[in-house]
Specification:
The chain is an alpha/beta fold and about 230 residues long. The protein is built from five helices and nine strands. The longest helix is centred in the last third of the chain and has 24 residues, at about 180-205. It comes from Isosphaera pallida (strain ATCC 43644 / DSM 9630 / IS1B).
Length: about 230
């Protein structure tokens, strides 16, 4: 039975935030969220997983955790709008309050009932090295080729374009002289593992005020700049 996504704040006496994850790969982001939930660092429950293709590691992560997962493939005849309807149908049916694009490589049209209730994590400091084609090691390869000294990760609300929604949090990562795309990616992933759960918690607490393309963090975000890894 489906439930409308709840609007934050979700209080300590309310049922935990109901998360859904959309995945396209190994599922490391999903695994991190499940670890945070298990340790009590993130007050949430993953209720559904949608994969863009079969045979990926993220489906095994979901299976081991006992989470219902479905594969929704986009055919050549599926428009973005049509494909998005197929993706959000099982998420809505599971009663997801917040959808996390956890390495999901398909463009989605966000339906009205999930406006500012879908978040994405991207492995760069947006607006650098983002948009169509910038995913995985391609992002870090571009950063190294450009010679930047800082990169990092961005957590943002998703809209109907790639990596273009209002930015919630960013964490910087220094680029070292001897970095390879792989070594840089490993450090950015560690930043993502902190930033994404933090952004989810702020959302659940109702502390994110979206003002156009900007997100104001209400309260005292300075106390959360360095949460435990």
């Amino acid at each position: 039975m489906s439930h409308a996504p709840r609007t934050p704040p979700i209080g300590p006496d309310d049922p935990p935030l109901r998360l859904a994850a959309c995945i396209s790969g190994a599922g490391s982001t999903l695994a991190n969220l499940l670890d945070r939930i298990e340790t009590g660092a993130l007050r949430a429950q993953v209720v559904a997983v949608v994969a863009s293709r079969p045979g990926i590691g993220g489906l095994e992560v979901a299976r081991r955790a006992g989470i219902k997962a479905v594969v929704v493939r986009q055919t050549a005849n599926d428009s973005v709008a049509a494909y998005s309807q197929q993706v959000f149908a099982p998420l809505r049916a599971a009663g997801a309050d917040l959808v996390v694009l956890a390495g999901f490589l398909k463009l989605l049209a966000i339906p009205p009932d999930y406006h500012n209730k879908v978040i994405n994590v991207h492995p760069s400091l947006i607006p650098a090295f983002c948009g169509r084609g910038y995913h995985g090691l391609a992002v870090h390869r571009a950063a190294l080729e450009r010679g930047v000294k800082l990169t990092g990760c961005t957590v943002h609300y998703a809209n109907d374009d790639y990596d273009a929604g209002p930015i919630i949090l960013q964490r910087a990562v220094a680029v070292l002289d001897d970095d390879t795309p792989e070594t840089l990616a490993a450090r950015v992933i560690q930043a993502e593992r902190i930033a994404l759960p933090q952004a989810i918690t702020l959302h659940a607490q109702g502390r994110l005020l979206v003002e156009g393309r900007r997100v104001r963090v209400l309260g005292n975000p300075q106390s959360e700049d360095h949460p435990p890894p």
